[in-house]
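Sequence in, structure out.
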Amino acid sequence: MKEMTAALIIQDKKLLLVHNVKHNGLRIEPPGGKRKPADKTLEECVAREAKEELDIEIEPKQLLGIYRTNSPEGEFQVYMFISAIRSGSLRLMEPEKISKYGWYSLEEIGSFEREGVLVPNLRKAMRELKRYL
């Protein structure tokens, strides 16, 4: 199965999420993406993706879990890392893919879930993630 990574960046009890619009629909998800052959480790992959999407340097701190997801590009195992921003200022680097980003509370994330726009892997991770929010 193909692999993806996701950065779970939390500040002030809010989670950083991006609004992915690249397949003509809205999918709200953590920054991250597909593992490429050049990525030696999953941690390297998640750091690369955060830099490519939001121009930030992150430090993956711990693996929260591994969750399956279906995306318009197929099925993936998603490795979700609790991460911290080391440097950089958030800015959209791929506006054709990501329309915006924001910091969201547990309540706001719940409303995304009810609207059906929260990605499946994040829905599955919420039980473990709640203790950080």
